[in-house]
Amino acid sequence: MAGLEWSRIIGQEKAIELLRRAIDRDYIAPAYIFAGAAGIGRVLTAKCFCQDLLCIGLEADRRESSRKRFLVSNHPDFLRVEPTYQHQGRLYTAAEAKESGLKRKTAPQIRIEQVRDITRFLSRPPLESSRSVVVIEDAHTMTEAAANALLKTLEEPGRATLILIAPSTEALLPTLVSRSQRIPFSRLSESDLERILRENGRERVLEYPALLGLAQGSAGEAIAGLEILEGLPEDLPRSLDRFISQRLSKAIELAKSIAAALDTEAQLWYINFLQYEDWQKRQDRSTVEILERARRYLLSYVQPRLVWECTLLELAKR
């Protein structure tokens, strides 16, 4: 039978038990919060749950059709919402923004226009399934106006189930949390994390202990970190050793490369990586403090190239 299998989810037995029991007993809450760190299985679990929700009450042949349509993102009773950037009156997902070459100075958000789309989607009865299903990824990025608008929808969801994916319930409005059932997701054990990385062909993560440390049990964060590292220009080091040993003139060139190659979000991650990697080797507080100042300047919108020039010069002098 076509479709996603619950067995693909690793290390989230408690969440799976709660959700499958709800389906077996036909006791589905109007809203759920999948709470936990990114990259530990929340999205995959949401897909498995949504797939099964859309099949409730259907005959075997219609279940098969429903699963196939869901897998190709063509199910009339399913809506996925993710944070967007706004540019010239149009909303772009992260993927669309990257493809269009848009400069992204701020983080994407779930906007009130998107919540209005949810309201319109739920205003009609489901067409093929017994309920409509909506997934809101990174729900903690909702603007205040969007969160308040969603609250009205949660008060009268009709024949629908909404799933909010967020790092924690504390990241959401208490009024949203009070109207939702929380499904907890735990950090992955070291063995589960290694298994996921190997199954996804990302064994190279294991070559960088600092990546595993920063990921803190999140396969998604470990893989995202590896992609940043592998995307760095060859002259940019994966260790502070090379920064500290460079001539002062070379520091200026490296600063230019960092500012040109990485957006602000990636630069902040790079600082985290360098701090963690160096602390594991030397436990030198002064180095951590130099990099921490760089983080503060970047967050204060100081010109990135200038930030890195000052930081690398200071490191080189040591």
UniProtKB/TrEMBL annotation:
PANTHER family: DNA POLYMERASE III SUBUNIT DELTA (PTHR11669:SF8), REPLICATION FACTOR C / DNA POLYMERASE III GAMMA-TAU SUBUNIT (PTHR11669). It comes from the Bacteria. Pfam families: DNA_pol3_delta2 (PF13177). GO terms for biological process: DNA-templated DNA replication. This is DNA polymerase III subunit delta. InterPro entries: DNA_Rep/Repair_Clamp_Loader (IPR050238), P-loop_NTPase (IPR027417). SUPFAM superfamilies: P-loop containing nucleoside triphosphate hydrolases.
